[in-house]
Design goal:
With 765 residues, the protein is of the alpha/beta class. Among the domains are: 2-94 and 570-644, P-loop containing nucleotide triphosphate hydrolases (Rossmann fold); 115-142 and 466-562, no CATH class; 647-764. 59% of the residues lie in helices and 11% in strands. The chain is built from 30 helices and 13 strands. The protein has a 6-stranded mixed beta sheet, with helices on both faces. The protein has a 4-stranded antiparallel beta sheet with strand order 2-1-4-5. The radius of gyration is 59 Å and the shape is elongated.
Length: 765
């Protein structure tokens, strides 16, 4: 017998319950009251776990958010039974439980299906039959497990997304494909990408070649090496001496003299003197300014001017800009032909810019020097250096242009080699190759081994189930009549208007499983458990929910009575009336009363107080407890006083008022002040209900009740001042107005005489 539930910790709403205080010892007859969701079913699962030594039932009930493991201690026959978070240290098999799981496992309240009939069959046939059934069930379970494994593996294959290979075709993929598929897969991916970007690729441009800046250094060098004849040299000497002697602006002297010679005849154009004595000087002038001399001077001037105007800076900058454009174009091709790099034109351009600019300045200086002195020796090395620098730049440009040409050829080859197939065809081929590639992933290699093996095992087990079938059927033929009679007797006691007929054992030939079958006799008409047509009478649509629960209860009691050593059994019933018709409360309580002496202990859990009071009255020497709960502390057990609970609200308010007079009782003065009015309203409405019915319906207050009764002459007119004064004093608290009416708010000392006066008035009205 369960003596006490000593500890429940981290189980459901029992955060940390330990039995403390009186009233928590369990008796032979123990009744437990609890509201739904407070933990009543949790207690039943703890007991079932203890009976079956099934730790999963408790671990499934572990308190949400709790880190610590569940713990439980139940005292049975003076011995602690401890659950340490993983298992019980000992079990209690002598325990029978009727609850929703029992109903669902045997007679579902909505419909009896094949599993229910198999469970019923196991209960009816007893230990010897169960042994045969278990041997049969073992084969069934193993075969079903293998079938489920096969189904699971098939489902896994379907979830794997192999739409281009059926299961058998997938298994038939050769191992030789593993080495080849990756290359095919990568090529198809590349082809698809190329095909998808074809329009974009064809719109791309190609890099352009660049031109080398040029200057005819050789011509300038040739001119710089040229000298005038000696006559020119002597003439030049004489002219220059004359200029130095006679001209202040020597830069304009040569032009002035040359133009003057064109104007001379015989006399001086300035003074008219005879120029015969100056004949030698004039001849020198003419020699100096003859055509050859002037041509040479012109060529030097033009060469210097051409070099000075040659903007090598702009040309080199333009070359660098062309390189930047080319680099951008090459970068755009990178996703398609890979990384390609052109020579760094910026580097050799900057080098050339520095060197050629310096050489230009030096060559220009040599040309200017030659202009001043046509017979001077020019520094020819400056011309050679500039020519070498231009040649070096040309070599770099040619190498750059070759890289541009090579890149362009590669890009055009890419375009020429774009796949000719349609992109959808390529994607389909890729999908197939992808599935082949996936076939050789480790998890699918394992699957391809596991599935054929599981299928073979399932087929072998299917052939081993038939041997036990005939033995089980032979055994069960003799025991069903006894069960049928007792179930029908209980149905009569419980007030059911139906009985069961044709209770017998059967075999499912397809699954080789044994089960129980029966029908119903209702108004002398037989109704089967199941029918093919939805509109024909059967268990599902003929019996009410209360009838179905009543049948489950009758089945439980009849099977319980045939339990070996019934007097040793602890019987627990969780809400036996939860789905039964209310009209069967009395009959159910009588059945439990008759059952109590036959068992070791009877425990009834319920959320219906009326049913609790009924079994409490019928079954003496009982302990009654209740489950209490709040959000902070969770659930706990405490003693439950049935007689105290039966009191109505009116009686409780009167007792509280009596206690308030003599004790420092807990309610606030506001509450007690309002309760005085409530007590009077209850008394008047009860005693004078017929007179006050209309007023009650209109939800009028205490004052209106008094007016109606005084008008009807039903109350002593001498009580009128006291009653209306009482109504006025208690009006605020009763209607939630006490905060807004401080003058009506009474203290405890003021309330005590008012309560005493109210008791006197109650007795008079």
């Amino acid at each position: 017998m369960i003596t006490k539930i000593k500890l429940l910790k981290n189980i459901g709403k029992f955060y940390d319950f330990s039995a403390k205080g009186g009233g928590l010892d369990w008796h032979k007859n123990t009744f437990l009251y609890a509201l739904n969701a407070y933990g009543k079913s949790t207690l039943v699962d703890v007991c079932r776990s203890l009976r079956d030594n099934n730790h999963k039932l408790i671990r499934a009930r572990k308190t949400l958010g709790s880190v610590a493991s569940p713990e439980a201690v139940i005292i049975i026959d003076g011995v602690n039974h401890v659950f340490n978070g993983t298992k019980w240290d000992k079990r209690c098999p002598a325990m029978q439980i009727f609850d929703v799981p029992f109903i669902h496992a045997n007679i579902l309240s909505h419909e009896i299906d094949h599993e229910h009939r198999k469970n019923m069959h196991r209960i009816i046939i007893g230990a010897a039959g169960i042994k045969l059934a278990e041997e049969l069930s073992t084969f069934k379970t193993k075969e079903k497990s293998k079938r489920q494994q096969c189904d699971g593996l098939r489902a896994e294959f379907i979830r794997g997304g192999f739409v281009h290979h059926a299961l058998d075709a997938f298994l038939a993929i050769s191992a030789t494909e593993e080495a080849a598929v990756t290359a095919r897969f990568e090529k198809l991916e590349k082809d698809i990408k190329s095909k998808e970007t074809e329009t974009q690729v064809r719109a791309l441009g190609f890099p352009s070649t660049i031109a080398t800046p040029t200057f005819n250094v050789l011509a300038a060098k040739t001119l710089a090496t040229k000298k005038l004849a000696s006559v020119h040299e002597s003439a030049e000497k004489l002219v220059l001496e004359h200029i130095n002697k006679n001209f202040s602006d020597k830069n304009l002297a040569k032009q002035f003299i040359r133009q003057g010679l064109d104007l001379v005849q015989t006399d001086c154009p300035f003074c008219g003197q005879n120029l015969k004595m100056a004949a030698d000087l004039l001849e020198a002038y003419r020699a100096f300014f003859d055509d050859a001399f002037r041509t040479f001077q012109t060529e030097l001037s033009q060469a210097a001017s051409s070099l000075d105007n040659w903007n090598v800076e702009n040309k080199l900058t333009a070359l660098a800009s062309s390189h930047n454009v080319n680099t951008t174009i090459v970068k755009q091709w990178e996703p398609f032909i890979g990384t390609e790099v052109l020579p760094d034109a910026s580097a050799f351009v900057e080098t050339a810019r520095t060197e050629i600019t310096a050489s230009k300045t030096k060559v220009l200086a040599e040309l200017e020097k030659k202009q001043k002195d046509p017979n001077a020796d020019a520094d020819i090395s400056q011309f050679d250096a500039m020519a070498a620098e231009l040649d070096s730049l040309k070599t770099s440009v040619e190498a750059y242009n070759k890289a541009v040409t090579d890149f362009t050829a590669k890009a055009k080859d890419y375009i020429d080699n774009l796949p000719k197939s349609d992109v959808d065809v390529l994607r389909l081929a890729l999908a197939k190759e992808h599935e082949i590639e996936k076939r050789f992933k480790p998890e699918w290699k394992q699957w391809a081994t596991a599935y054929p093996a599981a299928k073979k095992d399932a087929d072998d087990l299917l052939a081993k189930k038939s041997a036990k079938q005939n033995d089980l059927e032979t055994y069960t033929k003799t025991i069903f009549d006894t069960y049928q009679k007792r179930i029908n007797d209980l149905l009569v006691i419980l007030g059911a208007d139906f009985t069961i007929v044709d209770l017998k054992g059967k075999t499912d030939e397809r699954a080789n499983e044994s089960y129980s079958d029966f029908g119903f006799l209702i108004l002398k008409k037989k109704v089967p458990l199941k029918v093919r047509q939805d509109d024909a009478p059967c268990f599902k649509n003929t019996l009410s929910e209360g009838d179905k629960s009543t049948l489950a209860f009758a089945f439980f009691i009849s099977s319980l009575e045939k339990t070996p050593d019934l007097y040793k059994q602890v019987v627990i019933l969780d809400d036996p009336l939860s789905s039964l018709d209310e009209t069967r409360r009395e009959a159910t309580a009588r059945v439990l009363r008759d059952l109590s002496p036959k068992v070791n202990q009877l425990c009834v859990f319920t959320h219906k107080k009326d049913f609790l009071w009924m079994v409490f009255d019928k079954i003496p020497n009982s302990a009654v407890m209740q489950v209490r709960s709040d959000k902070t502390n969770g659930s706990w057990l405490e003693a439950f006083d049935v007689e105290e609970d039966r009191k109505g609200d009116h009686a409780k308010m009167v007792e509280a008022m009596q206690r308030y007079i003599v004790d420092d009782f807990g309610p606030t003065p506001d509450t007690m002040q309002g309760n005085i009015r409530k007590v009077f309203e209850v008394v008047l409405k009860t005693k004078y209900y017929r007179i006050l019915a209309a007023v009650i319906k209109e939800k009028k207050g205490f004052g209106k009740l008094l007016v109606t009764l005084f008008d009807a002459g039903l109350l002593d007119i001498d009580l009128q001042p006291q009653l209306f004064d009482l109504c006025n004093v208690t009006n605020g608290p009763h209607h939630g107005e006490i905060v807004d009416a401080p003058s009506k708010k009474l203290t405890r000392d003021e309330l005590i005489p008012l309560i005493s006066e109210a008791f006197c008035l109650l007795e008079k009205v």
